[in-house]
Amino acid sequence: MQSLYALNTSNSDRLDIQEKFLLNSIEKIRELYLSTLSIFIELRQLEEDILDKSAKKYLATEIEKNPNRKFVNNRVLTCIAESDSIHQALDQEKIKHFQLNDQYVHQLLSEIKQHDLYNDYMNKQTDSFKEDQEFLLQVFRKIIAPNDKLYHFVEDTQISWADDWPVVNTAIDKLIKDIRSEDYIIKVPDAFKNQDDRKYALELLRKTAINTESFREMYADKAKNWDQERIAELDSIVLNMAICELTKFPSIPVKVTINEYLEIVKEYSTPKSSIFINGILDSIIKELKAENKINKAGRGLIE
Asked: Where is the NusB/RsmB/TIM44 domain positioned along the sequence (predicted)?
């Protein structure tokens, strides 16, 4: 989507440049995913260091000698912080954003400890895996993911990460929910699932770019009731990509295409865009079916 936007808004028609940008952007999403996961590692280590330092003080109090270690012992946090696959990936990619910029980790830990979530959790008499999971999930949703300073740091580190941040946060939210036990083995995904996945990304870019004008003709009349100048450039790109999937990718079900692009629009475009996109796509699909221009391979792929 970013590559197509760059093609549409620049004077260059160099598709090869955008192909390289696309592949690099996808690799960078993985880097952001790993970097964000490293925050949990750094948070746990920082709190561990604080507790150890307090316990070693010459005149340490009884509480400092025997602190409440519920946060550092959180089972889900520990699962992430001690994951071999995460550490291996971070080492291989030499990702140290939050080791080198630990002020963000200090700030996040401070905010966590001042939040009612933390106080309620630390003072609970009960202790269960489910409580650990729910606590970490709420910490991520309410404190880490929406943190403005963290977002600006991410944006300054890599400009494309500003758009990738919601996608990565959704993936990490899902990971926390997927961890069901203390011995859960986290698998760090590759940038592409396989070569077919990589091929699909490049083909979608190429076929959408090459057929942009013909795709636009398919919805030009249908968009007459909408103010043409107010139709976001992004909406046009999303429509082109969706039509490309509908007509050029026989293995992708129609419903998958519709749901996928409606989600993209809800995340990135204007409030009314999803209504606009849904209406236009519905009309186009009816026409394409009537003209037998949607040929999906496999049982149940048309509906």
From this structure: 193-286
CB 234 within 8 A of CB 5: yes
CA-to-CA distance for 303 and 34, rounded, in angstroms?
A: 37
CB distance 57 to 96 below 8 Å: no
User: Scanning the structure block, which residue is given the tokens 């150890």?
Assistant: 52
Residue with tokens 């450039």: 233
Q: Going residue by residue through the chain, which has 303 residues, state the pLDDT in tens, using 9 for 90 and above.
A: 666 656 556 555 678 888 888 888 889 999 999 999 999 999 999 999 999 888 777 777 777 677 789 999 999 999 999 999 999 999 999 999 999 999 999 999 999 999 999 999 999 999 999 999 999 999 999 999 999 999 999 999 998 899 899 989 999 999 999 999 999 999 999 988 889 999 999 999 999 999 999 999 998 887 766 655 546 678 888 899 999 999 999 989 999 999 998 888 887 777 777 888 888 899 999 999 998 888 876 544 444
Per the structure block, which two tokens stand in for 106? 């200090």
Domain positions in the chain are 14-178, 195-291
Contact between 265 and 245 under an 8 Å Cβ cutoff? The reply is no
One-character DSSP codes across 232-285: -HHHHHHHHHHHHHHHH-TTS-HHHHHHHHHHHHHHHS-TTHHHHHHHHHHHHH
Would you say how long the chain is, in residues? 303
CATH of domain 195-291: 1.10.940.10
